[in-house]
Design a protein that fits this description.
Blueprint lengths: L2 H5 L9 H10 L4 E2 L6 H8 L23 E5 L7 H10 L5 E5 L1 H5 L20 E3 L6 H16 L11 E3 L12
Parallel strand pairs: 1-2, 2-3, 3-4, 4-5
């Protein structure tokens, strides 16, 4: 019995190594639990049955940085917490990605004072910014899907693209009804 008999009429699959590696990376991202404020509730909501991050291969949020490759920074980062965020990021294995979830993580939000870092990108490199205060679970899922598209375009050499900024209006206005 040769491979021709076992495979039947499936034919031959040809692809690039980069495509297969990036496909595996997008379908097996394991996020690190890192909720710092009210955005963490929305991050937990995205894991619930209504939104189900499991369909993206994110079955379990990891509590150990050595098992995670995606850090979702949800909420404001204080100056006291910034070295901890950096240490956790450094302990993650390569390749690793970061999503800044919410206005506080992206730019400090309403907390414009000495105690809050004005954007987590001062501490770790951010790949996707998800706007909102707090952003809905749908916005986080959209940010994760944008990150998946970004990862699919990456080269095996590890060179990353510029960050993606996901803008979300505060008020949804239907122009047609006016």
């Amino acid at each position: 019995m040769g491979i021709e008999e076992k495979a039947g009429d499936l034919g031959v699959i040809t692809t690039s190594l980069e495509y297969v590696v990036n496909w595996g990376r997008t379908n097996a991202m394991w996020p690190l639990l890192f909720g710092l404020a009210c955005c963490a509730i929305e991050m937990m909501g995205a894991q619930s049955a209504n939104y189900d991050l499991s369909r993206f291969g994110m079955e379990i949020n990891r509590a150990s940085p050595r098992q995670a490759d995606l850090m979702i920074v949800a909420g404001r980062v204080s100056r006291k917490m910034a070295p901890v965020v950096r240490r956790l990021y450094d302990q993650m294995s390569d390749p690793k990605w970061v999503i800044a979830m919410g206005d506080c993580a992206a730019c400090g939000g309403i907390f414009n004072n000495y105690a809050i870092v004005q954007g987590v990108d001062e501490v770790v490199p951010v790949d996707v910014y998800v706007a909102g205060c707090p952003p809905r679970p749908e916005a986080l899922i959209h940010g994760i899907m944008l990150l998946h598209e970004k990862v699919k375009r990456e080269k095996i050499s590890g060179k990353k693209e510029d960050p993606i900024r996901l803008s979300q209006p505060l008020i949804q206005v239907d122009v047609a009804k006016k």
